[in-house]
Structures are given as structure tokens and as C-alpha cells.
Amino acid sequence: MRGYGRAPREDRSGAGHPPRALVVALLLACASLMVLDSSGNGALDPARRVVGEAVGPAQAVADGAVRPLVGLSDRFESQDDLRGDLAALEAENADLRAQVRTAPYDAARLAELEGLTSAATDLGQALVPARVIGVGPSQSFSSTVTIDAGSDSGITPDLTVLNNDGLVGRVLRVTATTATVLLIVDPDSTVGGRIAESMELGFLKGRGVLGRTGRLDLELVDETVVPRKRDTVVTWGSPTGDSPFVAGVPVGQVVSVYSSLRETSQRAVIDPFVDFAALDVVGVAVPSGTRSDRAVVEADGSLR
Predict the structure, then answer these.
(1) Which of 8, 136, 182, 257 has the most CB atoms less than 10 A away?
(2) pLDDT by residue (tens digit) across 134-191?
(3) Cα(143)–Cα(211) distance, rounded to whole angstroms?
(4) Structure confidence by residue, pLDDT tens digits, 21-52
């Protein structure tokens, strides 16, 4: 319409951009700051201090929030390692405690095995080592033990059984892997013995009592001979030399002597060297060269 003119069009080509003079001023300021900073004269230190005081606390908070997250995986790995180390230490401690508990038993067994080696050498007799695995009556016998060696180990009935202390008994019967041993303290057991100091012969019979109170009775062949206290009694032996009892095996010691008026004989009470209530490792006397499924202690003390 007449009287109204169209507004002049604005030049929007530079909209949103700072004036060219401002850009030039900023560039000159940056260049000046770079020159001052590289000069090392400390002119910018106050400005840095102001910025540090303003930004530092916020940066510390951010670092404190991020650091636990960054180290979280390492912490989990460390805890797993500690748990593994703790489990290993607990297992090692358990093993050590078990060794401490069984050390006396292992030492006692080792001493018994070493005693068998000495016995084999002293007697000139090969021995098959065995362990007592059962104690109890067998048929009509009341004082027997079962050992863990049988015919597979070269053991047969009527063989001498001993340990590092002395005579234990004789083999009654065998299976492939076990044997029943009649102890010398059984009332049905008779052993030929002799007084070591005088070589006088006699017969030993058991009283059927196990343990430290168990005793044997010795009746000498010569009724006029009176044994003395603390005399040692050993096995007499047998015609075959090794069955049922080899010669020279220690049996016990004389603790008292009494006379039987009715039988007009001298009897001696013998305290056996073997503690029959604590039997563990024993040796069965076998002929040299016997085939066995276990190591045999030879007469010279060597193992075969």
C-alpha cells in the first residue's frame, strides 16, 4: 500500500560470529600469554593459583569418585588371591597338625622295624614283617591275634612269631593274606625254654592274661634246679630248627620261684618281655630264600 515501504533487508551473513576485531584481539592475547609462560618469569603464577583454587576441589572430588571404580577389579583379584593363600595355609597347618599327632606312632613303628632287623641278625633268621590287625579268640583259643600276612607272603602254620622285645607266639593257620597267631600267654600254649645263665631246660605255659600283668610258668626238667630271680629265659628250639620255635629267642625274666610239694618240682614265674596288649609290628621267622609278596629281613639284616 502507498505510504508503507518494505523494511530494508538486514545483512545476516555474519550472524552468530564475533566481530573480526574481537577475534584478532583474542589471538594477540593468546600469543602474549604463550610468550609470558615460556619466559619462565612467573608472571602467570597468580592466575594459575586462582584457577587452581577454584578448580582443585572439584577435581579432587571427581578423582575420589573415579579412583575406587578404577581399582575395583584389582581389589577383587587381590581378595581372590588372599583367599587362595589362606586356603593353602589352612591345608598346610592341617597337615602339620596331623604329623605332630602321628609322630610318636611313626617313631614307635620305626623303632619296632629296626628292632626286627637286629633280631634277624642276632638269630641268624629271615623274618617277614607283619602288622597286628585283630585281637580276639579263635575257635577254642582265647589269646590270639591276626596279622596282615599269609601264604602269599610265604607264611605257613607252626612258624615262630616275635617282635623287637621277644617271643610273641606261633602261627596257627593262614589264609592268602592273613594268619592267626597263638600267643605264648594262652593257657593252651607250651613253649620249650631254657635258663640262659645255667642252660637248664624247661617248659613254659601261659596263664591267659594279656597286658603287663600277664605271666608265664616255667617248669624245669631237672626238678632239683632252683632258678634265680632276674635269670633270663630264651626258647629251647625244636628239632627242625625253625618250627614251631627257633632257638635263642628271648622270652622273659624270672620274677619269683616256688616249690610244689605235691609234684616235688620247682616252678618259676616268668615276666614276658613282650607287652601283649600293645602288639603292632611283628616278624614271622621263615626259611632263608622264602618267596614273599613283601620285603623280607634277611639274617644279615638286609632287605630282600
Answers:
(1) 182
(2) 987 644 556 899 999 999 999 999 999 999 999 999 999 999 999 999 999 999 999 9
(3) 11
(4) 665 566 565 555 555 555 555 555 555 555 45
Residue 270 pairs with which residues in a beta bridge?
A: 216, 254
Residue 285 burial by Cβ neighbours in a 10 Å radius (0-12, 13-18, 19+): buried
The grid cell for 226 is 632252683
Q: Are 141 and 165 in contact (CB under 8 A)?
A: no
Question: Containing H/E element for 70?
Answer: helix 45-70
Domain residue ranges of the chain, discontinuous segments joined by + = 45-304
Q: What is the largest CA-CA distance in the chain?
A: 175
How many alpha carbons lie under 13 Å from residue 164 in its C-beta half-sphere? 17
Number of other residues whose CB lies within 10 A of the CB of residue 135: 14
Whole-structure pTM value: 0.64
